[in-house]
Amino acid sequence: VPPRPPLNEAISDHLARQISTGALKPGNRVPSVRLLSRRFKVSTNTVLHAFARLEALALVEARPRSGYYVRFRSSDALPAPRPGHSRGPAVPLALGERLPGFFRAMRQPGIVPLGAAAPGVELLPAQRLGRLLAKVARVRGASLLGYDPLPGLPVLRRQIARRLAALGASVSEAGVVTTVGAIEAIALALRAVTKPGDAVLVESPGYFGVLQLLRAQGLQAVEVPCTSEHGLDVELAERAMKRERVSAVVVVPTFSNPLGSLMPLDAKRALVSACAAREVPLIESDVYGELPFEGERPLPLVAFDRDGGVLHCSSFSKVLAPGFRCGWICPGRFQPEVEEAKFTQTVATPAVLQAALAELLFEGGYDRHLRALRRALKEQVQKAREALASSFPAGTRVSDPRGGFLLWVELPRGAVDAIELQRRALEHGISIAPGPLFSARDGFSRCFRLSCGHPWSPAFDRAVATLGRLCRA
Amino acid sequence: VPPRPPLNEAISDHLARQISTGALKPGNRVPSVRLLSRRFKVSTNTVLHAFARLEALALVEARPRSGYYVRFRSSDALPAPRPGHSRGPAVPLALGERLPGFFRAMRQPGIVPLGAAAPGVELLPAQRLGRLLAKVARVRGASLLGYDPLPGLPVLRRQIARRLAALGASVSEAGVVTTVGAIEAIALALRAVTKPGDAVLVESPGYFGVLQLLRAQGLQAVEVPCTSEHGLDVELAERAMKRERVSAVVVVPTFSNPLGSLMPLDAKRALVSACAAREVPLIESDVYGELPFEGERPLPLVAFDRDGGVLHCSSFSKVLAPGFRCGWICPGRFQPEVEEAKFTQTVATPAVLQAALAELLFEGGYDRHLRALRRALKEQVQKAREALASSFPAGTRVSDPRGGFLLWVELPRGAVDAIELQRRALEHGISIAPGPLFSARDGFSRCFRLSCGHPWSPAFDRAVATLGRLCRA
Known about the structure:
- The structure is a homodimer.
- By secondary structure, chain A is an alpha/beta fold.
- Chain A is built from 15 helices and 16 strands.
- In chain A, a hairpin with a 3-residue loop joins strand 1 and strand 2 (67-70).
- In chain A, helix 1 (7-21) packs across helix 3.
- Chain A starts with 6 loop residues before the first helix and ends with a helix.
């Protein structure tokens, strides 16, 4: 059972809901501190903490000697991006050749990091992980020095299985294989269920890492348009599967990359059934699943799996330690093929890092960390949306995700091409991820992904303002 | 400059050379302790240490009240395996399906580990690595938590480049890309220089990990027979390249896997030239290069490279920490392609592990560790050869490597098939690596690889005796 959120969060969530449903409208006065403290039976200090949080989300503003009022947020007027249409032959961009800025951005010192989908290390429990790493190195050093045998370190697989079982997935410790990040997990899944020349159904726009893997493994992308709110449309996916024979489906159903979309529960259930009925393996990446802004953690596809056809991939890269490169796959009925592929690709996953993460999950406090992280990311995303609303040209569309830390921006007609925008941004020391990366076909040339993983600061406001200026052609 | 070996080693090396050249013959009395202590101007204690070492290598034996005599080693009578001939279509064994014992052996608790090519953790500086890991986690924890940007952690790349430059290779820090073990390095090299359907020249017998990568990437193996003494014959390789168009050559020139062979310097130079002349990229795995039993560390192929056509792959898995999965590639002129493939496959290599290894290399003492490791491995290999000589049927052939820790055993006609031997051995709690793994064609069915990475003990003697019994059909 996850710990109950503190009272101040319960109050701010309550008020945020009233604002989002329209029960409290822009300009309305929010009930007073005294009134709320009486109604919720908490100290005035607790209520003041709740207001501070709503202020950070730009939902309310204090007026001197008058109290708190619901703010008009300029970002509320931002329309959502339109579902993408990509055209042309399915050839993913070569990162190095056709997009030279991509690698340069990663190395440029002092860059404003709006490109890479990484959480700021300030948000991660660096000290605690350092301490645990030192502990396992001291206590179990020698036993962790050899090759970690397949399917991975038992103590970590146990913790992963326990959390998945709590979500209703039939996954046991034996059904978890640890990997070098979620990207290796997806690579192994594809290796296990496809052969070169096969077609694979993917989201459009969809994570470029998946497209690059398809390219590397000689696979064809069948792209299905997604909305920034609900992600993959299952009917469209079924139609595509009728039209073309696909060997697998790859999807990020919860806070997708780049859209940040969330498939509703029914759609998730329907997708699992549709794939099971056709015996098409369903590869799920759930790396953002632990990062909802509000409410319960959305269920992953594997929670609906009944026949082992879902290959559930995830990692600790977006929540604990990108640099540990520690992920996993629950390969369902494809476990033998996945283990063989894992042995061939990297033999094993670093044992000492798995042990440190297992220790952290075992010690407890992980859910508390996740709650703090979710709160921080929600604020960062909201601040980025505000910055976009105030500096980008009219007609700019921006996604409004309910989790994760990615925004998808669609520039109005007449704005600059996204690859040109990336080039100009790099010259100004700012990285972004241009839209054409996220499709194997031509398309999304006026879109880009903005990553809000880092604690917001005036430097980010200035960077967004600069981007707003640069995108005017 | 590597530190000078201690005096007792200088004396034992001197005597070992006299024995191997025949200046001292089996049955001869070795000069007395007193004489040697006078001649080398050292204490009698130092000479006694030198004799202890020669005893451990089964080169001399003490006779009560009479002194030390050159032993007749039964292993000296073991003939070398014959160069292999493999036939049939080039389809590497699927590890999981066609060889179910392979993965089972890795998981079976308490198994006598003669199968996996891993050094015993007792031989590795576990405490020191644990301490350094704790130190870097404490001091640089937060900065090592993010994705390590390509091409890898500068402090480690500097140390790697420094050691390669000392061998005469033109490799700078910028020309090193860190990887998840040498196996990822080879996978990236193949990805960078081939496309599915291409043919790749490999050693026969050759490391099965390479064959599995060819299989995974849709490549064809062109196998060239190797001798257990000198490895790949450059003339045969050139003939094969004339006959068939190959896109790459993959070779383990120094203490190969499984043969333990060492290509002579001239052959190495000739291979680099032959590939350069044909513009065929030459992928070198040098993971055993630091493990000669005597003398200088043999030069890698990259030391002869003049045009960036050698892709030098290696790792710390055989010398420091298999479980850290920390390797590297110096991709020469293919660096952009290799970096792109690295980003696609695993994004980054764990930073904190790279930092701990860099710290160890920087602190010094690495060469001292290597010397102790080489000495231990030499003894283990010799003891395994003795055990084989005394319990295997007449006509058994065994390689006599000059480094590394692998033996290649060829059973006489009428002995059991190696895959059947592996099955029987597993039932007796012993793992070996059967010959057919090491070719993409049928062949080597009466061969197996015996790994001598662990400190020898009576349990290993008993295991080899059991194998000797089991191999009689």
